[in-house]
Amino acid sequence: MNINATLFLQAIVFAILVWFTMRFIWPPMMKALDERAAKIAEGLAAADKAKSELANANKKVDEQLALTRGETTKLLADAEKRAAAIVAAAAGQAEEKAAKIVADAQVEAEALSTRAREVLREQVAALAVKGAEQILQREVNASVHAELLGRLKTEL
Length: 156
Prior knowledge:
Layout: H1 3-136, H2 146-155
């Protein structure tokens, strides 16, 4: 066989192979590659969309956290104000009770002092009467000399 005939036959076989490949193999392969490229493009678009949604969600979470922190700070400040008001009210009530107790004690002390003075006056009057009896060497009648004894008590 001649090399030219072999080369010519191989060229014809190669042309048939190229035609067969272009006709039957190439279109399904290109269709599969296009589908795969479309799926990859869809996946990349979905990934970009998910990334932007994640960024938006992170922003919303940060905003909510900031809002919650602000509300928490406000609630803590309100609670501290309430606690201070309660403490101040309790201190005021304690001061009022202490003042009342002191006032009651002063009234009671004044009453006791008055009673003690009265008892002391009576005892001094009784001692004065006994002293007068001993000086006069006779009995002093309290009913007879009541006016005199009353004056003596008031003077003491």
